[in-house]
Design goal:
The protein is built from seven helices and no strands. The protein starts with 30 loop residues before the first helix and ends with a helix. Helix 1 runs antiparallel to helix 2 and helix 6 runs antiparallel to helix 7. It has one domain. The longest helix is centred in the first third of the chain and has 22 residues. It is mainly α and 174 residues long. Helices cover 57% and strands 0% of the residues.
Length: 174
């Protein structure tokens, strides 16, 4: 999956210059955010490819696997972990980290919440961001913490989300 995130000819203009990717609102994406977005898109593309090739009734009644057993889930988690570790080792600024965390916590899960097998994986990978959260300044952490509190109520959080919320709260100085 990671190979799909490398810059290819589609990312170049006619003169051979790299084009600037923009999000759906037209804002320029940072390289860090662009790579994370690309990884998420490659994961979803692979998931839907596997879904299209699934045999009828595969996974029904617990037989033969199903969407929750696709190898793309573990591949995605491993690739994201490696990517986030690489980012963390570059000592990014809090302003670079904030949009990446925003995407991982809110944008991606909201966009694909209709697909349960994908949604729960997107929740589970929140735990991979703990080291990046430690790089945030209170001015970046506070809005993330407040939004996290609203979007993921205490009663419905996974254990990793509880740990993350506590760390966001600490970084926010709340």
């Amino acid at each position: 999956m990671a190979a799909a995130c490398r810059i290819n000819d589609a990312d170049m203009d006619a003169a051979g210059r790299r084009t600037v990717r923009k999000n759906e609102k037209g804002y320029r994406l940072s390289k860090m955010l662009e790579e994370v977005t690309c990884l998420y898109e490659a994961y979803l593309e692979e998931f839907y490819r596997l879904e299209r090739n699934r045999k009828p009734m595969e996974g029904a009644f617990g037989f033969g696997g199903g969407p929750q057993h696709y190898p793309c889930h573990n591949q995605f988690a491993g690739d994201l972990e490696q990517l986030l570790q690489t980012f963390g080792s570059r000592s990014p600024s809090s302003q670079e980290v904030g949009p990446v965390l925003q995407y991982i916590y809110f944008t991606a899960p909201d966009r694909w919440k209709a697909e349960p097998s994908v949604y729960w994986m997107l929740m589970a990978v929140h735990g991979l961001t703990l080291e990046l959260v430690r790089l945030t300044e209170p001015s970046e952490a506070a809005p993330l913490y407040n939004a996290y509190q609203r979007v993921y109520p205490r009663r419905s959080r996974l254990p990793v989300q509880k740990k993350l919320a506590a760390l966001l709260k600490e970084r926010a100085g709340a």
